[in-house]
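Predict the 3D structure for this chain.
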Amino acid sequence: MELNETIQNAGGSAADAVVRPTADRRARFSLAGELVAAVTHDLRQPLTAIEMNVSAAMHLLRRPEASVDDVLAALSDALEQEHRMRDAIQMLHDLSARRSPRREPCDLATLARDALTLVRSDALARHVVIVLDADTGIHPVVGDEAFIRHALLNLLLEGLAVATPSQAQPASIHVTARDAGDAAEVAMTIPLVSAAATSGHDLAEWDLTLARSIVAIHGGTLVIGPDGVGGVVVTTTWPHADASTRTPIL
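Done. Predicted structure below.
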């Protein structure tokens, strides 16, 4: 809703709107600032990945006996990262245009798979294996696909940053997706670098601003707790969609 529409609906003047900004508008501007900062930060990784994959493809093509499969794999990964950037840029565009996140039925399991695909190269580089265990027939959730995907991506990237492989085997992040009452949930079990990393201080330093903000505007929850064996479980819930799911969230 634009400023003029807000004034008309409230029956006030433009001066009134400037002097007495509503709590909702202040909260929205604050949220927009957080999202812009977080999404801008997330653009750096796909840019680096695209550069590395294109450089690798060019290097492979210069070989006397170039492997077409290897070149295609590098270019395919670069294309996946481009999709990741496109989503982030679309989010920035939507925020600059003050468009509210869409309120449409979304397949949470599919969005989790999309997010896992986008961090595949990051996981390989860090020697981390990510396993997705998604129930079949999960009820659609209500929200904006691009926003939800980016929230899950934010969680996965932070998980990769703190997960540590042992000398004997790679670390493993276990992701589950299932229905939980009137919502669907995605839970990520993450092994940590050390037991000290489970302290409240270290968890507070995780850059989960984007995920927390997106979960909040979708009416969901984000909870972090110990997994009982030295790691943590990050659980997000997303409300189920219903027949009226076609109006803006904000």
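The domain at 3-96 is CATH 1.10.287 (Helix Hairpins).
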